[in-house]
Design goal:
single chain; 6 strands; 33% helix; 132 residues; binds zinc ion; globular; 3-stranded antiparallel sheet; 6 helices; 2 domains; alpha+beta
Length: 132
Amino acid sequence: MENEIIRILTCDNLTEAHLVKGRLENDGINCFLTNQNFTNLVPMYNNMMGAGIQIMIEEKNYEEAYEILQDKINPQTKNLTCPNCGSNNIKLGLGKYKGFKLLNIFIAIFSFLPLGNLKPKYFCKDCKTEIN
Ligand SMILES: [Zn+2]
C-alpha cells in the first residue's frame, strides 16, 4: 500500500521544528522538515506568506503523531472547561464521528485541502459533551 506524506504541523522557527521532530522520533515516527531554507532566508515574510517550517509525516502515523503533538497543534485545549459538567478533562477529537477520520484525511489529500480544515471537535471525556 502506498504511503502518503502529509503535514502534521507548521512551526515558526527551526528550533521549534527540531523539538517537534525530536518528540516524534522518540516515539518512532519518521518525519522530515520542509521549507527550512526558505524560512531561514526570509524570516520576515513567514507570517505574511503563511510560510514556516512544515513537519511532514507518513499518513499511517497521523493519529499517533496528532496525539503526541496535541498540545502544539491545539495549545488552547488546556484552558477549556466543559459547559455541561465543568470538567477540565477536555480532549480534542472527532467525537462520535471518529470512524470517519481516515476517510476525512483521504478526502483532504485528494481535494488538496489543508488538514486544518477538518475542524476536529473538543469534547469532554467525563460527560462526552461536544464543545464548539
Ligand atoms: Zn463534561
